[in-house]
Amino acid sequence: MAPESLRDRLYTTEAIVLSRLDYGEADRILTLYTPTRGKLSAIAKGARKPKSRSGPHLDFLARCSLHLARGRDLDVVTHAETVERHNGLYADIDAFSYGSHMAEIVRHLTQDRQENRAVYDLLARSLTLLNDGVDPWPVTRHFELVALSALGYHPELYSCLNCRQPVEAVPNVFSARMGGVVCQRCRSVDPGVMPISVNGQKYLRTLDRAGLAAAARLRPSEGERMEIEGVLSQYLRTVAERDLASLTVLRSMQRGPQDADSAQTAASLVPASD
Predict the structure, then answer these.
(1) Is pLDDT above 50 for 17?
(2) What domain range includes position 35?
(3) CATH of the domain at 25
(4) Which of 21, 91, 106, 235 could serve as 29's disulfide partner, Cβ 3.0–4.6 Å?
């Protein structure tokens, strides 16, 4: 069999930068998410040099157009151009943290080189909304729920996972281990269930059935927001089999300067590749 030529190894793709890791004296290793090739790792040689042509186009969370060459372990970036830089995220720590959370979800819940165009489009749209100043809380809850569904982890929101009866419009519980709502009669099937109010269930179902625009018209209280975020966060941790750090950093920073210092020591605001 003839060896593969350089021309055969070259390809072009759009990508969103999910993480970056400095490597050697001037290189950078990237985790990228692409519309047709899924998640992949690549190296941008010389990207950290002041005169690098590719480096300025490879910011964390940027959407870019890339020319790459397939390599044995890492593909190699040969050319990069910016499609959408998302400068607004770097001016708003809340939006940046939510964007980091979205990138972290995609990094940990997807497999290498498995195409999922729905996830790519969702991430691209959601980062644009954050960049444009749309309230990050509903945008992020919509992203979490739709990403879970697109990756095969759609939570059950309409019938009890134990008795299979339609859930009534009363406070129920959510089982992250089982993957959805459990009625009060069956709550003992999982000691780790979380309570979820009528309004919390209504919000998740509105997101699921009618999308972001409809859910954005609802006005959950601060307590209901914490409840909804807690339910989705616990489910994401269960699916990912690990803690997700980005929103933990944001919450620590919101509590005060001392907590912010410790949070930033524990986790960089620009995630590195795993």
Answers:
(1) yes
(2) 7-85
(3) 2.40.50.140
(4) 21
